[in-house]
Amino acid sequence: MTAAREERGGSPMVEAMSDRVMIFDTTLRDGEQAPGFSMNVVEKLEMARQLARLNVDVIEAGFPISSDEDFQAVREVAKTVGQLEHPPGICGLSRVALGDIDRCWEAVKYAKRPRIHTFVATSDIHLKYKLRKSRAEVLKAAVEAVRHARGYCDDVEFSPEDASRSDFDYMCEVLEAAIDAGARTINIPDTVGYAMPQEWGERIARIRERVRNSHKAIVSVHCHNDLGQAVANSLVAIQNGARQVECTINGIGERAGNASLEEIVMALQTRKDVFGVVTGVRSEEIYRTSKLLSHITGVHVQPNKAIVGENAFAHEAGIHQDGVLKEKLTYEIMRPQDIGRSSNKLVLGKHSGRHAFKIRLKDLGFELDGPELDKAFKRFKDLADKKKEVYDEDLLAIVKDEMTQVPETWVLDYLHFVSGTGLIPSATVRLRREDQPFQDSGTGDGPVEAVYSAIDAIAGIKGRLLDYNLRAVTQGRDAMGEVSVKVDFDGTVVVGKGSSTDVIEASARAYVNAINRLVRPAPAPQVKEIGP
Ligand code: KIV
Ligand code: ZN
Description:
Layout: H1 3-7, H2 12-15, E1 22-25, H3 27-31, H4 41-54, E2 58-62, H5 68-80, E3 89-95, H6 98-108, E4 114-121, H7 124-131, H8 135-150, E5 156-161, H9 168-181, E6 185-190, H10 197-210, E7 218-223, H11 230-239, E8 244-247, H12 261-270, H13 272-275, H14 286-297, H15 318-326, E9 346-348, H16 354-363, H17 370-386, E10 390-391, H18 392-403, E11 411-418, E12 426-433, E13 436-443, H19 447-459, E14 463-472, E15 481-489, E16 492-500, H20 503-519
Parallel strand pairs: 1-2, 1-8, 2-3, 3-4, 4-5, 5-6, 6-7, 7-8
Antiparallel strand pairs: 9-10, 11-12, 12-13, 14-15, 15-16
The chain binds 3-methyl-2-oxobutanoic acid and zinc ion.
Zinc ion (ZN) binds near residues 30, 191, 224 and 254.
């Protein structure tokens, strides 16, 4: 066994009996397919790099047959992240149709550790209404699919979809046949988030007893959160012998989401006395990963979200503050540093130089050089002029803006707006395209609409705003505002992001960013990051 394989979980046969739990991240597949979370190829690549830094064992990067863009994303992740020195496994999802598996292999084959994950439903409800197939037909298709996938690679995972509502004996028969056909991982999904912890734990234990050859595969679980039990169900499955859990950053995913990676990992770490297992995850990377996902998707977690929410480590009640000041252990079961959360440290000011800026970014995990560094430094200087105190969070907002930036076909050059009680809000905007200035004006119900009308007039486009979110990056009246917009341009929906201390300017930047994404959707990444 190589060092890399030891580090990331080793061979499935050995792992089936060990105290190492494999973390299978499906943020880029189950997470991404949920409404509002879609990512383009560049964004998926950025996330995949960060997941590798987090040291997850497997990245499920997409469902290659579902679209050309998904195929491309899986292939690019396999070619880049899958080729790192100690890479995670790169997995693609496929149904049991043989053509799906061929397409999946075409995408994952570039990885050093490719995995094919094939699934078919085994519950009678799905068989009758969705697949219109008999139990015998589904069993046969599952076996053929696993065999076909094994023709391509050793690492094949099989999932009986809707396992929590499947007939137990039949599902065990399918699992046994899938392992005989060569599946190395059998993943038990609670597809509809129906299971309750005690029965789910018992079900996993019974599967391990009943399926004659279960010791030849890793037992995995994949829990959805419809009844709020996804993390509890994943943890109880581990207590009953599961040695892989499928989960997502911030718990994103279909409907109410998937089990949240950060909650599972920190529960296992904080309560090692209860679970007695370890993961390979570098927990200090959790916060940054969560923030990057929010930045890319424009969807922020609720303040009280366990582990990564804004208030997760904030002690507000007087009695709690008093206790924590005397001794942190009174109310703090984890330290913010354990998940890589800085204490909003004041880092740089308007007199800080380019070198200090570069070094601080490096400490935060981003290596910028040349024109990218110049651009980010200029934005930092502008910010430091407007804002007395510049925090890590501000720097992260700037650099993440640059990382997910598309080539700027249109650049915001000038913005003037008038608004107030009793006035019709109006705006004048100047954009540059290939260094040529274009100016126009607009009015609206509010200053944002006025600015967007002016931009529409310049770009000769009409966007319908589907969603608009504004949040302060840090505390304080002079905080930077981060705006994310979702815009429908004649049937094509695009997300755009922008930040500034002026919220109307941030709104304009986000809208221009959306137009640039529409015009130039998937460029090569601009910013080099430090590898894991
Ligand atoms: O929820 C589910 O059943 C799935 C399968 C494809 C594993 O996502
Ligand atoms: Zn799922």
